[in-house]
# Entry
Amino acid sequence: MSLRNIVANAGRARRFISRGFQFAFYDFTREMSRGKRILMWAAILVQAYAIFALVTRSFVWPIMWPRPRIVFTAGIVLFYSAYTLMNGLLAAELVRKRQLESDQIAARKIQQMLIPKELEPLSGYEMETYYQPYRDVGGDYFDVIALGENHTLISLADVSGKGMAAALLSSNIQALVRSMSSVGAEPVSLAKQINQHLCRHTPSSSFATAVFLVLNKNSGELTYVNAGHNAPIISGTGGTKLLQATGMPLGLFPDSEYEAGTDSLDRGDSLLLFTDGLTDSIDSRDSEARLCATLKENTDIKKTMLQLRSLMTERLNRDDVTILLLARSLPTSD
# Structure
């Protein structure tokens, strides 16, 4: 065997041993509390020492001490004592994880109740939505709220992070939007108040991007605030327009200023709102261009939604995905 092969084999053996230690002392115990982790490590080491003593027939090999019968008896006692301790710790960890799973299931059911499944129909418009959390619960939020006879609030937000913490914050944002919209809050007022609330009552590492958009159903006029979110896309006969950011993400700076933008939906136009989970799942260097092309290619809203969903690649999907597609109907011919 050449020196190169010996070195290569030694390297593989070193990586194998290193991975074994990582599994035993990190992967195996990383979700345990510090105290349980120390006890588990001690049990693993005691079991290893007991096996060593039984194989060498000595506790202090190469010195043969004490007598083999004592080594055998003590080794068996040590091994099964450590084994029992490990089983107890693993059973407690299993119970903890089962409780956590039941809490997650309950949280998922609650969030599914909060996410609107059936939206009130908008006269003269068609709407399709898609929501898929990456884990059991997610940090995306969307809602459609009637403000009066002619106006509708469309809101969509994406909270930083994933899982339970993001879901709690998105539910908080939903409650704030619902309570503020009941008094007819404008997009700028919504963004400012929610931003100040998040800055005061959430950790500094938490923030959310959002779009608050008020639609005048009669005229198609849009008044919106884009708080650092992916630009919604308007597509129609007049081409493609992006509703770019008009302010910072929510929860970063309490004195952030937000400006209202305006645009309009002509008859036959469509409006796409989405979270970055959609664009990140598209296998393309310019995912927004793919979205724009899909909107142009399709006129039927249901087919458009199916086409948008088909753009996603499962192996790239690492985030919650929310899509809200709104289309203004063409005038009916008598």
About this structure: The domain at 119-328 is CATH 3.60.40.10 (Phosphatase 2c; domain 1).
